Amino acid sequence: MESANDDDVNRLMQEETEKVIHHISAKLPKEILESLDQNGGLKEKLFSYFNQSFQAVARYVPKDIGELLDQVGGEDKFNTREVEKSLVNMYGHLQGHIQRGINELENQTNSLLRHNSDSGVFIRGDKSYTVVKSAFRDNPERPKTVTDLKLCVNILESELVSPIFHYQVTMEYLIKDILSKNIIETIDKEVEKLRDERLDEGLDELSDSEIIINKLEKVEEFTDDNPGQAKAKRYSLIAKEILDRLKDTRAEIDPSEYDQLNIRENLKKIVDGENIRDRGFNTAVNSLTSILDNSRLGFQYVENFKNARELLIREYDDSDAADLPDEHYQIRMRYYDGSQILEERKAYDVQMKSFETEILHVWDILQLIYEDSKSPFKVSDFKDLTLKTKDRLRKINKGKPDALYEDIEKPWDGLSFVKAAETDVERMNRTYTYEKERIRQRIALMREMIKDLYGEYEYPAERRSLEERLNFLEKEYTRFDYGINPYHLHPGLVLDVDITSIKRKRITLEAMSKALNEFLQGVAKSFQDTAFSVPSRPSFPAAQGFGDLVSSVSGGIYLDPPPPAKPAEKKPKAAKAAKKPDDDNIREI
């Protein structure tokens, strides 16, 4: 019987493998298919994936275990929660790896067929929400053959697997952060216990709103807002005297004040021994550099600003873009706290205002030159026509209630539509989309005016000066706009990646895509929406046993079909007081 089942399994895996091979052969060009399928390697890998899948199901989900657990006592007597969660997680991870590999293969195939690159190379999977900016553009030096990519990824503090702290934070801050996390974990356990009690009593499970309300109500059981009282709840885990001694103690103590026998110094040694201060950033640095090495993305220049929590990696030591090859990259990884982002936003505001001032200055100069060049005896534009007909229009409209055109307020200047008034949302999250569009339009209009003023072949000193200044401002403004708007960042880890790659090859793009996805999987937690999350202890109908649960969760992939579920028998209601089961009751179970 077992040999027959093995033959069926092998035949099924062979059929599925052939289906995938046929699909790939129909989609990929012949030369790419030959490079992938070297010595039959592609077919062997696919067969291995399917074989592992069936082995995992056969190893961890035998139907006999479900029947055995139902016979032992059912879900009321035997808690199978952890087994169920492990089963679902193992099968989910296995299917996830297979699907991820297939998706990567399809993305690369479509990219090769289109001869084009897009943001989908990087923005995919459960880490897409971390991307702040992804912009492709033609390389200014070689626009036809080379493309540039700006990619910014922001991992929030709450999403970091290992928390990052600035080097300058006090010991008191580190201890309070540990205590805060301990309080939150304790509250989560209390609420989880409440949920289990409700399920045991046969009540409905707590809703998302009820869970949040219960957590908020329990905060006052563990802490308070009385930092000056030594007997406050906040000092139930660590005494106030200890926190006071660590209040102004930072990563370094003045050697003249250092005493090995002081309480402060010994408390600092205990905290430093756990490497809480440097663990998170060092872990991120080690993870990024090791992944780049494994991905064969070598780098010649590394500068680790450890005290500033910043890492700069360049593929080549030279930083001049004109001297670099067509395939190169640069990564800047930095940790930002709230105060740093606030200062970055202030600097961004000033720089944006400076560009507006400089552009308007060139605009005003050009307007003066244009007015001086016009002949006083003929109409050159609509403005001249308006002045010429002003007196006649005044006589025509005399006595009308409406004001004259020149007396009416004109909020629209012809460059962009009227901007709506700012609310707190816009003031706190400035995109500068309106202002940037006005700058682009002014630059384009000024170039047209210069061309109309001097024609195609006249290049006096005024024109050269105007064009040189305009080219400089446009170049710097493009570089500024290509960067990251700090209003879009939140406290956490920021990766600023600049990649230059050949359009037809995209070697660095594809290699960096895999490296960054692997890095994000290692340092960031996956985003989970509680509305779609699986409950930690799901409740199932009494007629559904463990075997049926496994079949429904895993998609019913038993090698042999499971037997039909038996109708549930009515059981007498349990007494309020728990009694010790006797021998007869055990026989009935």
Describe this protein's structure.
- The chain is α+β, with helices and mostly antiparallel strands and 589 residues long.
- The chain is 52% helix and 8% strand.
- It has 20 helices and 6 strands.
- The chain has a 6-stranded antiparallel beta sheet with strand order 1-2-6-5-4-3.
- A hairpin with a 7-residue loop joins strand 1 and strand 2 (146-156).
Q: Show unreliable segments.
A: 540-547, 549-568, 570-589
Question: Which descriptor suits the 3D outline?
Answer: extended
Q: What's the assembly state of these chains?
A: single chain
* Strand order across the largest sheet: 1-2-6-5-4-3
Find the structural class using helix and strand composition.
alpha+beta
Cα Rg: 34 Å
Quick structural overview:
It contains 20 helices and six strands. It has helices spanning 2-27, 30-36, 41-60, 63-72, 74-77, 81-114, 171-200, 208-218, 240-245, 263-273, 276-294, 338-373, 382-388, 390-396, 424-428, 433-454, 461-482, 507-523, 546-553, 583-588, and strands at 131-138, 146-156, 301-305, 310-314, 328-336, 492-502.
